[in-house]
UniProtKB/TrEMBL annotation:
InterPro entries: FAD-dep_OxRdtase, FAD/NAD-bd_sf, MTOX. Its cofactor is FAD. Pfam families: DAO. Transmembrane segments: none annotated. Residues 7-369 form the FAD dependent oxidoreductase domain. PANTHER family: FAD DEPENDENT OXIDOREDUCTASE DOMAIN-CONTAINING PROTEIN, PEROXISOMAL SARCOSINE OXIDASE. NCBIfam families: PRK11259.1 (NF008425). Keywords: FAD, Flavoprotein, Oxidoreductase. It comes from Pseudomonas chlororaphis. Its EC number is 1.5.3.1. This is Methyltryptophan oxidase. One of its GO terms (molecular function) is flavin adenine dinucleotide binding.
């Protein structure tokens, strides 16, 4: 049998792929990464200037150790590249509704966040509506029944910088990168994995596929039935009253009475004069080829009318810029991190259902541990494919 060119090939170099490639190179493996674009880029899910990071992860207890470790890795990376990656401005999770609900029918998100903060000993404060308004006057419009969880250890990370830092370090450690090459097929036989692009065939002992919204077409069954691509829109609105935002304003998540009333956003970044806010939608699915990457004036006006003015003061309806990204979503909105059931030696890391970036650095480390040592320090079993078995 012909010797494989690489120990591991990583397909897709967004949040998960960049972290995995770096961690494998750090452990001395002969690794390659391939991406259809030149990351960091704005064609997938890992862009948009800022991404929330928090330790009390209301989506579930299995995520908390990953979020905590990822924040430690961001700091380690900052020291190596001498560039700020993680802004610890705090995170405020709020339920602003008289009838709170969680996303997709889950229990109240803020209450779950508070419970997990207590369970894991994460520093936090529980705030009512009056306390929220007093400390953060930009949230004056919130509902009188609002409940908040303020986590001072949270904040936001810079996704493009984080990806670039890890890919740069991976190169310095000897990793080979193939960019601008679209993977057309992944096959496994005789103990090797073959990754074929337009003009290249890469052979490796193992592969990690982090292909985001292109995963289902690359991986086939069962992923073609499990994964949905949902278009998401990001908005940056001009500030009317910059002074209304305290110097240390937090990133925030607001949950209303329904999925349509949920939104999240970030403090104004100094010098930009605008504030980023976004929501999430899971009712309409798309494909990589027909994803609409333009944000219309009507969409911007509706976002401002329905969510911005009802939750945040000091922001105008003037749109400074906008962006589109794609969430690749599983039926239960939790990750899939597991071996491919039909392709030997292929690990699948998708889909991250819109809340993956905050965990990505730690997932990359855990995958590298699994591939090198046979096990990871953080338990990833909650993300097994087995939960979707008939």
């Amino acid at each position: 049998m012909q010797t494989a060119e690489f120990d591991v090939v990583v397909v897709g170099l967004g949040a998960m792929g960049a972290a995995t490639l770096y961690q494998l190179a750090k452990r001395g493996l002969n690794v390659a990464g391939i991406d259809r674009f030149a990351p960091p880029h704005d064609q997938g899910s890992s862009h948009g200037d800022t991404r929330i990071t928090r330790q009390a992860v209301g989506e579930g207890a299995a995520y908390v150790p990953l979020a905590i470790r990822a924040q430690q890795i961001w700091r380690e990376l900052e020291a190596q590249v001498d560039e700020p990656l993680f802004e610890q401005c705090g995170v405020l999770v709020m339920t602003s509704s008289a009838a709170p609900t969680g996303q997709d029918g889950t229990p109240d998100f803020t209450a779950n966040t508070l419970a997990l903060a207590r369970q894991f000993g994460i520093e936090h404060e529980a705030l009512d509506a009056a306390q929220i308004r007093q400390r953060f006057p930009q949230f004056a419009p919130i509902h009188d029944s609002a409940l908040g969880c303020f986590e001072p250890g949270g904040g936001y990370v810079r996704p493009e910088r984080c990806i670039d830092a890890q890919l740069t370090l991976a190169r310095q450690l000897g990793a080979t990168l193939f960019t601008g090459e679209t993977v057309q097929a992944i096959a496994s036989d005789q103990g090797q994995v073959r990754v074929t692009s337009q003009g290249r065939c890469i052979t490796a002992a193992k592969a990690v596929v982090c292909a985001g919204m292109w995963s289902s077409q690359l991986l086939g069954a069962p992923f073609d039935e499990l994964l949905r691509v949902c278009r998401q829109t990001l908005y940056w609105y001009r500030l009317a009253e910059p002074a209304i935002f305290p110097e240390h304003s937090p990133s925030f998540i607001v949950h209303g009475a329904s999925d349509e009333q949920h939104c999240y956003g970030f403090p104004p970044i100094p010098g930009e004069g605008s504030m980023k806010i976004a929501t999430e939608q899971y009712s309409q699915a798309s494909t990589p080829d027909d994803l609409d990457r333009q944000v219309s004036a009507a969409q911007s006006a509706a976002m401002y009318h329905d969510l911005v003015r009802t939750h945040i003061a000091g922001v105008t309806p003037e749109l400074v810029k906008s962006a589109v990204c794609a969430y690749t979503v599983t039926p239960d909105a939790h990750f899939i991190i597991d071996q491919h059931p039909r392709l030997a030696n292929v690990t699948v890391v998708s889909a991250c259902s819109g809340h993956g970036f905050k965990h990505s650095a730690a997932i990359g480390e855990a995958l590298a541990q699994q591939l090198v040592d046979g096990r990871s320090e953080i338990d990833l079993s909650a993300f097994s494919l087995a939960r979707f078995a008939p």
